[in-house]
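TICKET: design request
STATUS: open
ATTACHED STRUCTURE:
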């Protein structure tokens, strides 16, 4: 259900941006790093939205990669602690096994 909400919100956002961009078709002066040029405002708006999406997605991807690394380190640490418990004849309770297994999915 949550994924469907994101898709619906994304479609609504695209429709709003499209209507806004189509209503602004005049030509504007764009300042680049080494000069200026003329460009249709619709392209400036669409390019800005596209770059905002790319930057946001990149930041999200970096966060996901960091979390995956941290998860893997924590799983390795957990496995090492479980081996240590088994060496001393202690065993982890069944309840905590089911709780940790549900997070691994």
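STATUS: resolved
RESOLUTION: sequence designed for all positions
ATTACHED SEQUENCE:
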């Amino acid at each position: 259900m949550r994924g469907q909400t994101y898709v619906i919100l994304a479609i609504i956002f695209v429709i709003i941006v499209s209507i806004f961009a189509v209503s602004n078709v005049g030509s504007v002066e764009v300042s680049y790093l080494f000069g200026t040029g003329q460009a249709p405002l619709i392209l400036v708006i669409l390019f800005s939205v596209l770059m905002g999406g790319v930057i946001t997605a990149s930041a999200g991807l970096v966060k996901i990669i960091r979390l995956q690394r941290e998860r893997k380190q924590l799983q390795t640490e957990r496995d090492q602690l479980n081996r240590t418990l088994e060496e001393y004849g202690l065993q982890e309770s069944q309840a905590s096994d089911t709780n940790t297994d549900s997070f691994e999915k």
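CLOSING REMARK: The beta strands are 27-32, 35-40. The chain has one domain: 2-104.
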